[in-house]
Design goal:
By secondary structure, this protein is α+β, with helices and mostly antiparallel strands. The protein has 12 helices and 12 strands. It starts with a helix and ends in a 22-residue tail after the last helix.
Length: 333
């Protein structure tokens, strides 16, 4: 028996393509660190493919990143760099910085480690506590949306409209301040929720100044087509079928689609399929022939040709290395 609330939520989401595409959005932490640093300090986080999350649990720091003026962050602040731009957290602007991987690390639990503990003779009241994380967007089909996000997204922009996030931030502060059993794992889960809430808040505020792809989704007729493509990427889509979904002629649909997204409908579908394929093969380790069937290709060879045409390399190159055994050193932060 179907749950009535689920039916209502699904119908509401389909009325808003952005909501439908974001329903399955999650941020999955790849690795985290609990940093305790005594001023003066500077710690640099290199550019990465994953998003980067920073939470200030005690003290004050400055965020430095190319193209931005130094930005003060205080206790309770949380920020997300969705594209993983390189940046530094410093006690004072202009202080020398060290790469995060040069600090000594102590594993606390799976995927979480303690980093850069302050010297024992440092004033304990001056220590700065930071919880940092590398995070993977589990919305690979929405890659264009990630590209439209601002360089830095802050929880501060949400507090007036979503005061319910305050208990989450307070809980993170408490967990960072104590050494209770399981605190590292709890911090990791709280960080995932806070980061995802930051992204959702940006979407609910209209995605800032983002245009193009967002405008396409906000167009009820064109957005309905894009949502259908993401919902069923393995279907043998034709321009005629997409135009029918929009309720227009092929020429009008193709022109409006290209104007909004910057590409043709069939190229969009091909790129969407290959992003999914790379995720399934590399991260989820699904067999290539299974991926080919899921995406509607009649043979593995046909899929391989399409993949190489779009990405420039064969699908086997997307295969991620085998998972690191638990006893191996922690992954880089």
């Amino acid at each position: 028996m179907l749950d009535r609330n689920s039916e209502i939520q699904t119908e509401a989401a389909r009325a808003d393509p952005i909501s439908e595409l974001l329903m399955g959005m999650r941020l999955r932490g790849a690795s985290y660190g609990k940093l305790r640093l005594a001023p003066p300090f500077g710690i640099h986080f290199p550019a990465a493919q994953e998003a980067r999350f920073q939470f200030i649990a005690a003290g004050n720091v400055y965020l430095q990143s190319e193209g931005l003026a130094p930005r003060p962050l205080a206790c309770g602040d949380a920020i997300l760099l969705p594209r993983g731009d390189g940046h530094s957290l410093v006690s004072t602007p202009g202080v020398a910085v060290r790469p995060v991987d040069s600090f000594e690390r102590t594993p606390l639990c799976a995927d979480v480690c303690a980093v850069g503990k302050a010297p024992e003779d440092a004033g304990r009241t001056k220590d700065v506590l930071i919880f940092t994380g590398r995070m993977e967007f589990e919305l690979d089909t929405l890659h264009p949306l990630v590209g439209l996000m601002p360089q830095v997204m802050s929880v501060g922009a949400l507090l007036a409209r979503q005061p319910e996030i305050m208990p989450l931030l307070a809980a993170m502060e408490r967990e960072m301040a104590t050494e209770r059993a399981g605190s590292a794992g709890i911090l990791a889960r709280l960080a995932d929720v806070v980061a995802a809430t930051i992204v959702r808040g940006w979407v609910e505020c209209g995605c800032g100044d983002a245009t193009g792809w967002i405008e396409a989704l906000r167009d009820p007729r064109l957005g309905r087509v894009i949502a259908a493509l993401h919902r069923d990427p393995g279907r043998a889509w034709t321009v005629a079928e997409m135009a029918a979904e929009m309720g227009s002629s092929r020429s009008v649909f193709a022109e409006r689609f290209a104007a909004a997204t910057g590409t043709t409908p069939l190229r969009y579908v091909a790129a969407l399929r290959m992003r999914l394929a790379a995720q399934w093969i590399g991260r989820d380790r699904i067999a290539i022939d299974t991926v080919a069937r899921r995406l509607g290709y009649g043979s593995q060879a046909a899929f391989a040709r399409a993949y190489k045409r779009v990405t420039g390399h064969p699908p086997g190159k997307a295969r991620a290395p085998s998972p690191i055994p638990r006893e191996a050193p922690a992954a880089p932060l």
